[in-house]
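Note to self: keep these together.
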Amino acid sequence: MTSIRALFLLLLLALPAYGADALFPAAIRVGLVPPPGMVLSKDFPGFEDAERKVAIAVAELPPQAYYELERVAFSGQGNLQMTIEKREMIPHDNGFAMLVSGYHVEGEARIRKWLLFTLIQDFTAVITVQMPEASAATYPDAVIRTALRTVAFRPPPIDEQLTFLPFRLSELAGFRVFRALPEGVAMLTDGPNPDDFLGQPHLIVSAGRGAPQHAAERENFARRLFAVPQGLTGRISGAEAMRITGHPGFEIQAEATDPKSGAAFTVVQWLRFSPGGYVRVVGIAKKEAWPQIFPRFRAIRDGVETQ
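Structure:
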């Protein structure tokens, strides 16, 4: 007999589609038709009625987060920050979602809460609704549920997402950005299928804080961050300090092999240090294409402008 989880995943295999009247917070793939009286928030990804202190927060989490939320919702061994009153599956345009509803107490105030989560291809969509009990007359349970059933999904809004990064990519060297994460990560590829990680060149640009500012510590820091991509075996073939666009930097290269296919790859990591932190650029490509790809990786690296 097909399990509930298998059936749930089967129903979600279709490509997500736009909701006809859904609104989407900036840079977020998840949207819905908000209840009358609620508008897009300027303070967080989601919707709000500031006067009545009602909020609908929208988030994207990794795919595995769905199963952890499901486990916590049914086992009670975790912290959903609510006393659960009801668990149910509700339909939306792309399948089904788990909806957990209940309340929690803040001081003497009783806060109504709904938590919806659903697995959509490569991410878990999470929608949290909170409101004081006093606002239930304006936003009764039926109104909240109607809004949650309109949850809709769109392709990654890359242009919007790029505006939230702590850096700007002024040079793409023929690559394209296929994902930009609010944590400050841009993922680029040179090919039609971003999921074909080993079949086509990939580059990841990220920014971080707290990097060492003394030259003697930078190499150790770079080596701690470096890793051959999961699934490959390899070794470091070169490591050296250098200047990158006028800043101190460090480069590590490695030769790697896919044990399954025997294909050979080259991996590079650059760190560019500044007083406020660092920029990290990691690229991978097949070894035979490296002479053509490496200058393009370097051009993208040199075009990273911090804000």
